[in-house]
Amino acid sequence: MDKYFSTFDVARICHVSPGSVVRWINEGKLACSLTAGGHHRIHEKDLITLLKSLRMPLPPELTAEDKMKVLIVDDELGIRQMVRWVLQLHFPNAEVEEASEGFIAGWKAHGFCPDLVILDIMIPGMDGYRVCQFIRSFPELKNTRIIIITALNNEEVKQKVLSLGADDYLSKPFDVDSLKEKITQQLEMRKNAEPPSDEKAA
């Protein structure tokens, strides 16, 4: 799961006072969110961005390799198994969750905070279009990459899913190499994405 730190955690990691951390937040140097109780919570990636901008060394607790998180959403068990197999074969570090219908997919996306969602359109409950919109409605999922997989193979559908926030599109049936290539491309794009803190500080 994503790591969040309090201002006191950040102060300890950076060897500064909590007041300095609050000042960084107020000056827009450090992005943060607020809990229901009004407490600051700083995402690990935003803290790393700050430390790099200040040329401060990253402590061991921030340098551990992140485990890639992928959510597979499809009502066909065979498709989910195939995608999982591709991930296990080519991305063995991946942590994988599955959903067979839209409402569970939305719930898991919000709680799991995946790096990548592989999403079918024609699923029970909330369809893939609405799941895509749901994911894009949460700021913490703004860098989550979405690959649509669907048997609805036409340009109108493709343009619609891309307009709703999907990042790529793959027609069913698809081969393993095509899926692997698209996953690799999207994960690389996610890795190179602008960090949220830069945008908020602008």
Question: Could you explain how this protein is built, in words?
Answer:
By secondary structure, this protein is an alpha/beta fold. It has two domains: 4-63, Orthogonal Bundle (Multidrug-efflux Transporter Regulator, Chain: A, Domain 2); 69-191, Response regulator (Rossmann fold, 3-Layer(aba) Sandwich), CATH 3.40.50. The chain is built from ten helices and eight strands. It has helices at residues 7-14, 18-26, 44-53, 60-63, 77-90, 102-112, 128-136, 155-163, 176-191, 196-201; strands at residues 4-5, 33-34, 40-43, 69-73, 95-99, 116-120, 145-150, 168-171. The strands form two sheets. The protein has a five-stranded parallel beta sheet with strand order 5-4-6-7-8, with helices on both faces. A three-stranded antiparallel beta sheet has the order 1-3-2. Helix 1 (7-14) crosses helix 2 and helix 6 (102-112) runs parallel beside helix 7 (128-136).
Tally of individual domains: 2
Beta-strand share of residues: 15-25%
Which sequence of strands runs across the widest sheet?
5-4-6-7-8
| CATH level 1 name of the largest domain | Alpha Beta
The count of β-strands is: 8
| Span between termini | 27 Å
Estimated helix fraction: 40-55%
In short:
With 202 residues, the protein is α/β, with parallel strands linked by helices. It is built from 10 helices and 8 strands.
